[in-house]
């Protein structure tokens, strides 16, 4: 059996491109894209993971992801678009809660950590993570043979790295998350150091005292944070499996999604999401 775990953070932002007419283009693009994704993989179970606040990472590095903050006084137009995006994201979540899908979130963890925990601990034969976030490459390989990573934009499965991905990224940093790498280290040099073996890496890190400190910090920032039993007990389960399709239909009509009601599309849309089962059926106790 197959569990499809959807990185909702990625899918929300992906929906900002494409169709852009009307008041709810992000909502329209999201549900079109989600239906296509579920149809493609035909999972037995479906889980969408929402973002929480990465408290542990903020404690280690207060500037984490701060480059994503938009100052309304400096970039008013960009800020207005961001506010509108969050308005539409809230609409998406409200609609998802009326559909037969499972939404999960932990208030103190990023969705990446929850996705990784689900994928590692699922009892299904295959766990497919749908995301364009390259951090999930660290889950691929012999240690977790059941985990697959599908990139919805490239429309292809991602291959495992031929070297230790976390070490490589800890050396070069992650600009998208505002994690600075070792000064002077780019992709190729980082790859060379990783492939050179532990001795070469230790020699490099010991040449300058600050290098190892930054490297260790980056490792902790980039590795997925493992959930304890208490953490798992605090995961919020939202949505359910008694679909309120009449309300979903009303929402789509209110938003002017007339194409959803041409031919058999809406009936097919409903059928797509009746395939999912409860989260408790696919996660180890």
Explain this structure.
Residues 278-285 have low confidence and may be disordered. The protein has 285 residues and is α/β, with parallel strands linked by helices. It has twelve helices and nine strands. The strands form two sheets. Strands 6-5-4-1-2-3-9 form a seven-stranded mixed β-sheet, with helices on both faces. It has a two-stranded antiparallel ribbon with strand order 7-8.
List keywords for this structure.
285 residues; alpha/beta; Rossmann fold; DNA polymerase, domain 1; 2 domains; seven-stranded mixed β-sheet; 9 strands; 45% helix
Quick take:
By secondary structure, this protein is an alpha/beta fold. Helices cover 45% and strands 12% of the residues. The chain has twelve helices and nine strands.
């Amino acid at each position: 059996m197959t569990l499809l775990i959807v990185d909702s953070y990625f899918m929300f932002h992906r929906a900002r491109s494409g169709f852009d007419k009307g008041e709810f283009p992000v909502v329209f693009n999201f549900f079109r894209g989600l239906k296509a994704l579920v149809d493609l993989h035909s999972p037995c179970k479906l889980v969408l993971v929402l973002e929480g606040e990465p408290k542990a990472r903020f404690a280690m590095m207060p500037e984490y992801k701060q480059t994503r903050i938009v100052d309304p006084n400096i970039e008013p137009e960009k800020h207005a678009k961001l506010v509108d995006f969050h308005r539409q994201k809230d609409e998406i979540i409200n609609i998802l809660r009326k559909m037969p899908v499972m939404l999960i979130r932990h208030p103190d963890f990023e969705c990446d950590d929850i996705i990784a925990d689900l994928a590692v601990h699922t009892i299904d034969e295959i766990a497919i993570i749908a995301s364009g976030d390259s951090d999930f490459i660290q889950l691929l390989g012999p240690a977790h043979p059941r985990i697959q990573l599908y990139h919805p934009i490239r429309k292809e499965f991602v291959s495992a790295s031929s070297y230790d991905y976390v070490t490589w990224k800890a050396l070069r940093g992650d600009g998208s998350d505002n994690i600075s790498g070792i000064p002077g280290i780019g992709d190729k040099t980082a790859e060379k150091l990783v492939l050179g073996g532990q001795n070469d890496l230790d020699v490099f890190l010991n040449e300058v005292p600050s290098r190892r400190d930054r490297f260790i910090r980056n490792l902790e920032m980039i590795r997925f944070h493992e959930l304890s039993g208490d953490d798992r007990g605090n995961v919020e389960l939202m949505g359910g499996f008694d679909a309120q399709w009449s309300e979903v239909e009303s929402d789509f009509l209110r938003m002017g999604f007339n194409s959803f009601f041409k031919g058999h599309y809406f009936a097919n849309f409903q059928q797509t999401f009746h395939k999912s089962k409860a989260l408790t059926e696919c996660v180890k106790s």
